[in-house]
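Example 3.
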Amino acid sequence: MIERDHIKKLADLSRIKLEEEELPGIARDIESILSYVEQIKEVTDKTEVAPGLVRNVMREDALPHEGGAYTEKLLHEAPSSKNGFIRVRKIIDQG
Amino acid sequence: MDIKTLTLQQARNDLDAKKYSAGELADACLSVADTKKSLNIYLEVFGDVKEQALRADKAIAQGKRAPLLGIPLAIKDNILIDGRHASAASRMLEHYKAPYDATVISKLKNAGAVFLGRTNMDEFAMGSSTENSAYGPTLNPHDPSRVPGGTSGGSAAAVAAGTVIAALGSDTGGSVRQPASFCGVVGLKPTYGAVSRYGLMAMGSSLDQIGPLGKTVADTELLFSVIAGHDKKDSTTLPEDMRAKKVTPPRRIGVPRDLLLGHMDEDVRENFENNLEMLKSKGYEIVDIALPHASYALAAYYIVMPAEVSTNMARYDGVRFGLHVQGASLADDYGKSRGAGFGPEVRRRILLGTYVLSSGYYDAYYYRAQVARECIAQDYIEAFKKVDLIATPTSSTPAFAIGEKEDPLSMYLADIFTVTANLTGMPAISVPCGVVTRNGASLPLGLQLTAPYLCESRLFHAGKDIESSV
């Protein structure tokens, strides 16, 4: 049974702020989805999970493009920037 | 000219023969897009369509030849076009401008395409109806009280309504094929790794593929040939030497009878059986096959996909790009930005993914789903030793009504036939195969064909046979 406290914990882990009144509805939805996907436990095969067609891809440890080529465009998308850097919140208190 | 029936091949011939100009073609598309505004197909019709078309005309006049030169296309809003907005139909990216071209976009630009606009979709490609868009649902051109399918509902409706010649969508669990089926157009989910995803917003990275939507199988095939190829910017694309192989044309088509036992509208079932008869009359051999693990596909999909969603969506932190909501601390900034930016289905999947990946549940859910996925892939590989293609309906119903599936699980069940191709990575196509009537409206159906890895050519071959008989 998924309780509202579970949802609160998951929201906290996922860094999503939810309103109190949203919790029961979300708990109900997640509960119903989990009760459907639960049937996966019937799959008891011992099959190894193979990597498929995927193979390891390496590239030279070199600059993929000219430095700074995208800086301006990327910074333009940042909510806050200064002197060519993304501005972030101070997280260390000097005590 | 009637854009609704104008195929890419016809438009190409007409433009090359100078029957009309790319400018006139663009005008005709823009005018249809304008009259179909109430369908909410486009999040934005670009302001420079005419300029793009005039550039194409200039190139045509100079004797330049390229497969898509002057051809208007619609692009799903999760594929980046340099300098243009790309929002994935989310509030999170409402003001986001793409800083570069997706590889598929560079390829389309090189082929001379004209971009008409960016199409509506379920937010971050999560949904099956386009109702999860933060900007309102798209309506089905065949019956505006119904959904166009999803998540590429805008792209499918754009083609069906005659606003463009063809379109691009993306398919994680059926998001190109199911809307193609609901809107009466052709939609292809290529082999995993066939098309570069550089510049596609990631949703379920082991599942996502970009796919073309067109009015005919030949148009879809042409668009696929333009966008496919190895890309060093996407390490999951398959190298060219793996692709270069001779594919035998399809002769035997397998039907997974067990899978068809579940709920399906009676007239959809009848239509499917009639199409099998038609394929027989065209010389195909129809045989029953067993896919013992395929009934677990939907459960496996709704574990693997949210797990990948919860990982991929972590990039939206309100710091580097996208919506930022100021809080009392850094953690509060994250929580508030993500809480305000993500709609209900996106949150639900992130929470579900976080749950199935958490240490106490990982083995019971995620690991089991990976095993099931492997078993399903083995079932298909086995089946393809006996048959060349596998046929099912694309969806067990025609387009459903807007608001009909309010509970998320019932929406998920709409993906029952399409998710397997994403779990296995095999290519699949939806081809229009007839219509059924609901409340006086004639609604299209789609037949889905699945082929072994990199055997897209078989889908096109049999797809054309279906198309010519409907």
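Chain A touches chain B through 46 residues (CB under 8 Å). The CA atoms of residues 41 and 53 of chain A lie 26 Å apart.
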